[in-house]
TrEMBL record:
Any GO BP: phosphorelay signal transduction system
UniProt modified residues of type 4-aspartylphosphate: 52
Protein name: Response regulatory domain-containing protein
Stretches of the chain forming a coiled coil according to its record: none
CDD domains assigned to the protein according to its UniProt record, in alphabetical order: REC_OmpR
Keywords on record: Phosphoprotein
Keyword Signal listed: no
Response regulatory domain segment(s): 3-119
Length: 120
């Protein structure tokens, strides 16, 4: 299956998403804030990066902007998770290079479907 980076600052959500994706056979690398996520992204290869929009140290948007400046990481697919689900926010993320956007709250099975769709 795929190797996925999950950057989420909420411990319960991190555990729920992590367990769900691991149950589907994916290998997960987890970061608790944007700074840690960016560091791991620079050191590892991922098939998909899932970023929470609002995180400490660096937001998911800031991580996305820096990620898209890395020549060897530009092609990595990025899914943004956010409680900010207004159309303008989604467009801002897509213009910055996000491949898709998932509003919070969401069901674990909806996330699995979205991940599988993005990895296909």
């Amino acid at each position: 299956m795929a190797t996925i980076m999950l950057a989420e600052d909420e411990a319960v959500l991190r555990m729920l998403i992590g367990d769900t994706l691991e149950d589907e056979g994916h290998e997960l690398d987890i970061a608790c804030d944007g700074e840690e996520a960016l560091q791991k992204i620079g050191q590892n290869e991922y098939d998909l990066i899932i970023l929470d929009y609002m995180m400490p140290k660096l937001t998911g948007f800031e991580v996305l902007q820096q990620l898209k400046q890395m020549d060897d990481k530009k092609a990595v697919k990025v899914l943004i998770l956010s409680a900010k689900s207004q159309h303008a926010e989604q467009e801002k993320m897509r213009e910055a290079g996000a491949d898709d956007f998932m509003p919070k709250p969401f069901s674990p099975m909806d996330l699995v479907r979205k991940v599988e769709e993005m990895l296909a």
